[in-house]
Amino acid sequence: MKFSALLTGLAFAFALPTVLAASLPESRSSPANQLTARDGDASKFLETSQRDLNHSSIYKLEARTLQARQSTAHSIIDSVTNTVRDIAARNPSRGDFTQQVVSAGSSNWPQYNWVICHTSYITRFDGGAETDWDGIHWDLGSIGYVYDLYWFTSGTFERHGDGGFINWAYSGRVISTSNNGATVVFGK
Q1: Of 111, 114, 110, which Cα lies nearest the Cα of 100?
Q2: Signal sequence span per UniProt (predicted)?
Q3: Strands 133-140, 183-186: parallel, antiparallel or unpaired by DSSP?
Q4: What are phi and psi of 41, to 5 degrees?
Q5: Kind of pairing, strands 121-125 and 155-159?
Q6: Which residues contact 164 (CB under 8 A, 6 or more apart)?
Q7: How far is it, in rounded angstroms, from Cα 159 to Cα 182?
Q8: Which residue among 53, 60, 95, 126 is least packed, with the fewest CB closer than 10 Å?
């Protein structure tokens, strides 16, 4: 009995390396020219070009799709709403409030022009609503006034009524002003 167990163990010990060696694949290498011929030259299909990207063009690339544009618009609206609430909660004077709002907008989203206004006005913004421009209407009981805030890539804003920081403020890429500063043309 002991002898047959020993013999079986020896047979297994000699057979195991043979079985393992037979099941392992042999490593082979191919010369580089064979790989190129088989797989093709990938560099033939690659094309590079130099592009002059600035902040504005990068933003446009990010917001190409409708879903991305809407997501960007909703993100800005949520953030702007929170910013305006924070500023209003500090209970600044009306003149300080308007200046702080457009300053915060310009700091956080420099790709847009910003206008906040209490008096009547006319807008002629370029592009489409929710893609190139948007706005929010607020009844700010804490400071006792109603304001409209707009952010836009370019266009014209014409204020009717009294000026001064109590009634309005703006920030952005001003191309020109006319009508004693009541009409402002903004560029991209």
Answers
A1: 114
A2: 1-21
A3: unpaired
A4: -95, 105
A5: antiparallel
A6: 95
A7: 5
A8: 53
Report whether 142 contacts 88 (CB < 8 A).
yes
Q: Kindly write down the DSSP assignment for every residue of 15-52, as one continuous string.
A: HHHHHHHHHSPPP----HHHHHHHH--GGGT-------
Q: List the structure tokens of 114.
A: 């910003």
pLDDT at 16: 47
What is the domain partition of the chain in residue ranges?
Answer: 63-186
Query: What integer pLDDT is reported at residue 119 of this predicted model?
Result: 86
E strand or H helix at 171 = strand 168-171
Q: For residue 117, what are the β-bridge partners?
A: 148, 168
Q: Which residue has the tokens 């703006």?
A: 170
Residue with tokens 């906040």, as numbered in its chain: 116
Q: Count the residues in the chain.
A: 188
Which residues, listed in sequence order, are joined to residue 183 by a DSSP beta bridge? 158, 178
Q: Are 113 and 151 in contact (CB under 8 A)?
A: yes
